[in-house]
Amino acid sequence: MSTNTKTTEPNAGDNLLMPRALTAENGGKHLMIGEFQEVVKLECTACDGDDEDCEVCSGHGTFTYRVPVGWDTIKEIYQRAADHFGVDPSALLAELSEQAQPAEPSGEEKLEALKNDAHAKLTDAEQAWHAYACECDIGPARVRAFDTYENIRVASRR
Ligand SMILES: [Zn+2]
């Protein structure tokens, strides 16, 4: 029943969130009831249209009668529009959050990430130099490797 066919892209301000139905509870009934009339032209049945003293038509032969649009009809008209154009706001919000791009990290978060990365790589280097130094034969290479390892280890403690 609800088709939701939109033929043109909406502009800002073209769309509104409105209740699904007019009810007494949401104030829609009070707002709309009795507000609309149909003007109906009727033939006078009290005279032949030639009696200027006719209380109904004053001799015009016809008279207009204002017919209030019934509450049920007002509700049906509103319902038809709501079924066709209405969008469930929760579905709309879900769609919008899917489209939302992840927020750019702030400068503070970026700095923290770089600091953590730098610390992690220094720890990696410390472990790598330690592993290498331990495998070196006794001699100058081993001494230099342990010196380097020690420098890294001390640097990371600052
Ligand atoms: Zn009349």
Q: What string gives the helices and strands in order?
A: HEEHHHH
What is the number of helices? 5
Question: Separation of termini?
Answer: 71 Å
Q: Identify the strand order in the major beta sheet.
A: 1-2
Strand proportion, as a percent range, falls in 5-15%
Rounded average pLDDT: 87
Class by alpha and beta content: mainly alpha
Shape: rod-shaped
Tally of distinct domains:
2
The set of bound ligands, ions and cofactors reads: zinc ion
In helices, the fraction of residues equals 40-55%
Number of E strands: 2
Rg, Å, rounded = 41 Å
What does this structure look like?
- With 158 residues, this protein is mainly α.
- It folds into two domains: 72 residues, no CATH class; 51 residues.
- It contains five helices and two strands, in the order αββαααα.
- A two-stranded antiparallel ribbon has the order 1-2.
- The protein is rod-shaped.
- It starts with 27 loop residues before the first helix and ends with a helix.
- The protein binds zinc ion.
- The site of zinc ion has 7 residues, from loops.
